[in-house]
Specification:
Protein name: Penicillin-binding protein 1B
Subcellular location: Cell membrane
Shape: elongated
InterPro entries: Beta-lactam/transpept-like, Glyco_trans_51, Glycosyltr_51/Transpeptidase, Lysozyme-like_dom_sf, PBP_1b, PBP_transglycosylase, PCN-bd_Tpept, UB2H
Strand order of the largest sheet: 11-1-15-25-26
Pfam family, one: Transgly
Number of helices: 24
Number of strands: 33
Keywords: Antibiotic resistance, Carboxypeptidase, Cell membrane, Cell shape, Cell wall biogenesis/degradation, Glycosyltransferase, Hydrolase, Membrane, Multifunctional enzyme, Peptidoglycan synthesis, Protease, Transferase, Transmembrane, Transmembrane helix
Helix content: 25-40%
Radius of gyration: 39 Å
Strand content: 15-25%
Oligomer: single chain
Distance between the termini: 188 Å
Length: about 775
Amino acid sequence: MTKPTPKKTASRTRKPSTSAAKKKKAPQKKGWGKKLLLLGVKLSLVGIAALVILGIYLDGKIRDRFDGQIWQLPAVVYGRVLHLAPGDAVDITTVKRELDLLNYNKVRSPKRAGEYSASKTRIELIRRPFDFEDGPEGAQHVMLTFGSEGVTAIKQLDSGKQRGYLRIEPKLLGMMESNTDEQRIFLPRERYPEFLVDALLTTEDRDFYHHDGVSPLAIVRAMIVNIKAGRTVQGGSTLTQQLAKNLFLTRDRTLWRKVQEAYIAIILDYRYSKDRILEAYLNEVYLGQARGQAVHGFPLGARLYFGRPIEELRIDQLAMLVGIVKGPSYYNPWRYPERAQTRRDLILRMMMESGVLTSNQYAQAAARPLDVQKSPSLNSRQPAYFEQLTREIRERVGNQFNPESGLRVFSTLDPLSQSLIEKTVVNKVKALKKTAGNELEAAVVIADRKSGEIRAMVGGSRPGYAGFNRALNGSRQIGSLSKPAVYLAALLQPEKYNLATPLDDKPLVLKGDQGSEWKPRNYDRKFRGQVPLLKALAHSYNIPTVNLGLAIGLDNVISTFDDLGVNPDQITRVPSLLLGAFTLTPMEVTQMFQTLGSGGRKAELTALRAVVTREGQVLYRNWPKASQTVPEQASWLTMYAMKHVVKEGTARYLNPSFAWASLAGKTGTTDNNRDSWYVGIDGREVVTVWLGRDDNKPTKLTGSSGALRVYADYIKERQPQKLILNWPSEVTSVPYQVREGQFVTDCFSQQKLPMWDPKGHWRERCDKPDPVGWLNSLFD
């Protein structure tokens, strides 16, 4: 029997068919495409997320700056405000010079702010609008009328009414030092001339009000122009992009910077109105350099190039400013006037073609010269004055003062006095160096006689250069400037001393504790036996002064210095103090003579009037005030004697030219002619002048031949106000005669001498004269 063949087991696998294998491999190829697509989607999402994150970051950065204070605005410093009122002793020449310093245009008939016309007795002007320390005032169209004594009337021309006063806006002096190297004056959009805005948009961004921050059309147009030219001649950036770059980015020419620039521009356009963006650009645009600092914004640019507010510029001047935007260095009008004028005329022609200007307006504007200032400057520098101003701000405003917050500082500086004394010092010191040597230095302080407000300050022979400020820090022996205080101390005792009191003028020897000897002598080495007190002061005799000071006591003299504003700790209690053998600065000397020159009313010297925030909040305001520290009668008599210093004494050089002004003054000279001093007082100012060398070597100059000559040249240009001293109560006029150089009272004489008569004794004696007894009592 045959065995059956065994069957194959089910575990035996079959070979798969080719079609089945193909079916399994197909999905594998489709998976790579999906992966690439998925990768692209992921990268896109990452990119979008990055852009969103970048946008959020940039948006926060933009809002932080735009919603707060966009710039660190330096504190702007102004000079004093000129107040005019009927009855003020201000002549028409002074007001015209003030307007010229403020760059008012003199025209035949004023039509706009910043213009004036003048005749012999009248000034018509349209005063500029200005934000004063107590609030803003609009433009004022007024007529000022002047007489022989000063202002007689102020009339408001638009209403026909008489005004009680008028304020002339102060001169912009400059900016306080700050931590930023950018300077600008912020101005809101509505105060910009529309022609300036039209010209800027026409030349820089015609579609500004229509694009969303970035203009693709402008980019394409710029590319075509640049390709044709073979170089970059036109940019495609909008004003918004330029603003974005200036405020938030560097100037690196990279693709990444351009991306950020465009992104910021889009966000700015979304977040803020077109006018807000335009306002920021108008205040941000770079327009040049002034003394190493960048000048930004059209308001400051107008002052840099033309010395006047942006609102007052002509269309040709505005066109030049717009032209400079393209390249302040390339179109610098002082270095390359032809380039600047060509660019200006191009902009004027574009404005004519766009219909903003007529052909006649274009022709007139293009025919004008550039009319820029002689040199690029925002102001004349007053480093000595600014040092005093900075000191006072630190003392009186303290931590409230932020030099980058756009504060407005109102000072007391008189721009006319400052400019004239600077010119005088430069010219006169140069001439005096022929005698004194090239190392001769100078310092000057000028203060208002009544208020003590500092009107001008010079710290050295080169007034515009910062350095050692001799006006504030140069402490030098004052010499004969001490004498008025000595005579004042005597006149405070009217029962013992008067202007006719005879003083010994004989050889004098004073012995010290250690056996030393002091032999004071007069400058001319002469002795006169006896001289009246008035003559001794007028001629600055030394020996009579020492005798008088010893008689009334050194303590009384030092106390009088204290009353006049001099720190007594600076005075050594020795007899030589009577001849000024102690040191003071010109500032301290000015304080002393301000008290004396104002009838004994001491007003603390100050350079700071007010500090005001951008919002108008007053952080500090000084109200001029004075206190009676010296009896008016004694001060008045001392000033009477100081008038004789000019009339017949050591300052008589002034009298031929200024006898009408009745000036008072005092010369001062120290040992070996090391220091030359003069203090001059007119109805307006107290002026202290010092000349000397920093090494304290002789200068060969006396007070009369040095400092007095500086004062004379200054006052010739400044033109003094007549010094009128109101006659005090208890001061009476006593008749006298001069016999053999002595003052002798004579009740029947036509000549009279003022004396302090608190108890009426002098008046009574002349009412009932006893010639022998009365005359004897005079010299008792």
